[in-house]
Design brief:
The structure holds 2 protein chains of 2 kinds. Chain A is α/β, with parallel strands linked by helices. In chain A, 39% of the residues lie in helices and 18% in strands. Chain A has a 6-stranded parallel sheet, with helices on both faces. Chain A has a 4-stranded antiparallel sheet with strand order 2-1-4-3, with helices on both faces. In chain A, a hairpin with a 6-residue loop joins strand 3 and strand 4. Chain A is elongated and about 60 Å long. By secondary structure, chain B is α+β, with helices and mostly antiparallel strands. Chain B has one domain. Chain B has a 5-stranded antiparallel sheet. Classes of the chains: A alpha/beta, B alpha+beta. Chains A and B meet through helix 1 and strand 4 of A and helix 1, strand 1 and strand 5 of B.
Amino acid sequence: MRLELLAALNAERVARRACILVTEMESGAQRLVRAAEIAADPLGPALAAALQSRKSAMAGEGAARAFLTVEVPDLRMLIVGAVHISQALAPMARLAGYDVTILDPRTAFATPERFPGVPLLTDWPDEVLPAFGLDPYTAFVALTHDPKIDDPAIQAALAADCFYVGALGSGRTHDKRLARLAAAGIGQDRLARIHGPIGLDIGAASPPEIAVAILAEVIAARHHSVFAGAGQTEAAQ
Amino acid sequence: MLATEADVLEAAERWRREGRGVALATVLETWGSAPRPVGSHLVVDAEGNFLGSVSGGCVEGAVVSEAAEVIASGAPRTLEFGVADETAWRVGLSCGGRIRVYVEAVE
C-alpha cells in the first residue's frame, strides 16, 4: 500500500467519515472510495452493501475480485454526569471498545482523580457539545439527575441521531422529563427513542451493577437496531 | 488496553514515516471458528515489532516472519492457515478454523 493512501485512510478515520479501501487481488491495485464516491465506483453496489453491513469482505469476480476494507467511525460514548455510576461505566465501556468522554460542568465531580485517563468536559452542554460533534456513532448517557444539565444534552443527542440515548431516573422522573422535553418542542417519535428508566432490567442496585445494565443496553442498541437496520430495541423487561 | 484497528493503521503510517520498513497484514477470509474477524489488521516492522492481531495469537509468529520477506521484496502475498496444514502443530489454529491473510508492504 502506498503511504499516501494509508494516510488518506487514516485522515478519513480521524474525521469520523466512512470509507472503503478497495484492493484488487489479481493486480494488487488499490483505491480509496469515500462514502459519497460509492455510486460512481465500478463496484458500487458491493461497496454500498459492505458499508451498510460495516464489515470488511471480498467482492467481485475474476480480475475484478477485490478485498474491501470497510472503515466506519469508532464508537464513542458520551456520559453526562461525573457520578458514581460513571466511575464504573467509563472503564467498562472502554473495555467494550468505546471512546469514552465525560461531561459535567460541576468541577467538584469531574476530576481526573475520580476519572483517571478519561477526557473530561467541564463546560455546560450547550457550550461544549457543538465542538464535540455528537453523531450516529455515539452512545449518549445522561446521569446527572439535574434537568439543567441533562435536558439540553438529551436534546442535542436526539438531534444528532445518537444510536443510543439513555437517561437515568425512575419511571416518574422519566415521565416528567418527557413532559418537559415535549413542552420544549421535541416530537413524540424522537422522545420515544430515549431509554428511560435507563438500562436492561437485571435488578441492578449498586452503581457498578447499574453501569453493567446501561452498557448491555447500549450494546443491544448497537447490534439490534440502528446498525442492523431494524427498529428500536426495547429493554428486556 | 488492547490495540484497536485504528491504533494499528495509525501505527503503520507513523512507523513508515519514521523510516521503518513496514508491512500490513489483513484477514481476508475466514472459515469455521476463526478467532479474529475479516478485516482485522496486524502491522509489522522490519525488526519484527508488531501491533494488532490476525488470529488471537495462533499464527502471528508465521505472519511476522513472512512480513519480513514482503518488506524486503515489496511484493504482496496471501497466506493461508488452518488445521489441515502440515504445519498445523506449529502454526495451526487450535479452534479448528481456517484463515487467509493478505500481507503487503507500506511504501
